[in-house]
Amino acid sequence: MLSRIAESLFWIGRYVERADGTARILDVHLERLNHLPLDEQRSVARELLAVMGARPQSEEFGLPELLHALAYDKSNASSIAGSLGAARENARRARETVSSSLWECLNTTYYGLNQHRKDVVGTYRFCNWVLERTAMVRGLADTTVSHDESWLFLVLGRSLERADMTARMLSTRDVLSAGMSWVNMLRCAGAYESFLRTRRAAFGDQHAAEFLLLDRLFPRSIVYALRDADECLAKLDPSAQRVGFINDARRIVGQARTFLEFHRTDDLMAELPEHMDRVQKAVTQASDAISRKYFNQADELAWVGEVS
Amino acid sequence: MSELFQDYSEAVARSGAYDEMFAPGQIARRSYGQVEGALKELSLADVSARAESMARTFLDRGVTFDYAGEERPFPLDIVPRVIPADEWETLERGVAQRVRALEAFLDDVYGRMSVVSDGVIPRQLVTTSAHFHRAVHGFEPAGGVRVHVSGIDVVRDAAGTFRVLEDNVRVPSGVSYVLENRRAMAKGLPEAFGQQHIRPVEEYPRRLLSALRKTAPSGVDDPTVVVLTPGVFNSAYFEHTLLAGLMGVELVEGRDLICRGNRVYMRTTAGEQRVDVIYKRIDDDFLDPLQFRSDSMLGCPGLVNAARAGGVTIANAVGNGVADDKLVYSYVPDLIRYYLHEEPVIANVDTFRLEEKEAREHVLDRLDELVVKPVDGSGGKGLVIGPAASKDELDALRQRILTDPRGWIAQPVLQLSTVPTLSGDKFGPRHVDLRPFAVNDGDDVWVLPGGLTRVALKEGSLIVNSSQGGGSKDTWVLSDSPQLPGPDLPRPSISVREQVSVWPVESNWRDRQSEQEQQ
Predict the structure, then answer these.
(1) Tens-digit pLDDT profile for residues A246-296
(2) Which domains, and CATH codes, for chain B?
(3) Domain segments of chain A: what residues?
(4) Interface contact A274, partner B, CB < 8 A
(5) Is A299 touching B (CB cutoff 8 A)?
(6) Would the ipTM clear 0.85, i.e. be above it?
(7) Cβ B62–A2 below 8 Å, yes or no?
(8) Measuring CA to CA, which of B42, B48, B450, B514 is 20 to 30 A from B331?
């Protein structure tokens, strides 16, 4: 398939997952944030924004600004509206490749972005709506697109972004020191019930972090997401080598995953920031390696002379 | 019905045009019987609700055109344009004849030029055309086809006769709306579809693909076809994606392509892949910076040489613009007689060639009664309608004609035929044209039954271009002999096997049912 299209699909996967993750984080933390006194609310809003990888643009940064930055700011591809807009724009460019129902779903989602009240109550509804729409995108991508190269690029983007997002969800633990932060962490990932059923009575930060980081069966855990990404990469480039790797992305993703999976520690919580950092770096590097290998276009038109 | 069509016949009489749906006295023509019956049952609220839902579907599906950087849904009116079988038969023949003549003409002007040496048209006419490209002189296209896809615009004059208004053999667009309109109408006015056979349009992408494959460079067994688009900001981008999608081929931009050794390749995730046929949807001027505009970022350097060397087929061929020059248009009836030894099936609109002194003086005297068009324009650009123009505009036009008589033609103002069109709270007559599409695969010219009917949404307006406030209508070609399996061919009945028609349920389903009943 065309490199340009592959790139679009990869980014559709990433953007949709980003919108989904951001909506989850926002939904859960908005509830907490609302209970705080104004001063604290401000500082927490700042920190939450920092976890999402952005810096406040103005001095006055409170709840309304946070909502704008994370949910409604269309000019910024890290907000929900921005990433869904960017996903739709990519789908528009790859429209003949994706199924029409997938394109239509992204297109109607884009047109629905403006139809929400932008206050706190409206944002709850908005987040829920986003979760529904992104679930629909995933469902349509999985059931109406052939699981060939194009789908693999989509899932690859999705898995990498998911690993990154779960890392951010884990980092929000530091933001809200008060209260049962591990519950929030799990609820962000939609993992609360799964966790309770698996761990029985073993509650607490340590176990929750372990679950989101290392669980081999929960689909939003980092190890699981990285394994998905690894499998996509292997299918995209099936050349089996007996020794070593020529595929940078596979090496990076595999290393990050095995490091987590086979790491032994007594104090996970102390190491957590370091792990998160490692995961996020690995995702960025892998993303770069993938675009170098698969998406690179010549920068400009070049006249290639005749070969006699 | 009565209130929706109130004052309709008066409005038609005012415009003096031929109405497609009603004969004088507001009696529906026979071909419109079903449509009238369906509309009669609807109230204004029904019609507006349906129109709104059709517009919504277009926006959701992204059936849009780009206007000043904004995506707009292409307005589709709920009343279809219906063409009876006998009239279509004539149109079809006329369009195919024209395409064959233009094909022969192009082959000639880029070859021996016998049409000039035999005195049918002046040499100057060809060589002064802005779209006559010497870069493709003396080049034999694969399969002998230059006009793979064409759109021949026809209109109906006040007497109800079809006439050709212009030929489009470069990059005719609009076929995507034909396909989408039919889909939307099947949901918007389902009542009118029953009991009559409307010829399907969905065949088009398959016909196009097979024609493109057939004209691949010789020696290629399984040709790779691509659609070349200028990109997402082009006003017809939707059409490019739709056609590429329906043909199941890649939609490429210039930067995806690379020419090497007179072969063309596209950059894919698996390295470079050879391209054999390019369905080009960009203007010649932007196609190849080596031959044409060197500042073009939309094309790919080397394409024209590759095509000349037979390494790739470009459809439509480069240089076709000379055939749809509006001055050449005025000679097409002669070209049909010269190349095909036939009389034209559909007449031209009377056209004044402003280069001829007598015609020019005549036209300059009556500028306020005529339509004046630039010879190489498209999309209604630069066109001046005399009766609607101000004195200043006419004076400016006069100056421009005098400085460049080769650049303009003049035609009488045609009262294009009208079709009822929803406007506000009732139907009013609005002027329409028709663009049938033809696909030439080298052996046969196939005309898509129907085509794009464009409609000027403003009352009295004669300009139907979407960039100037035009909409469209679904175009139905009726068929006398429906190609359905007749009554003598009974449908094979499907035998239902008892076992598979029962859905399995879990083992305690029945218990739960009876529990519920007891509660």
Answers:
(1) 788 889 999 999 999 998 888 888 888 888 889 999 999 999 999 888 887
(2) 8-349+418-477 (no CATH), 350-413 (3.30.1490.270)
(3) 1-145, 146-296
(4) no
(5) no
(6) no
(7) no
(8) B450
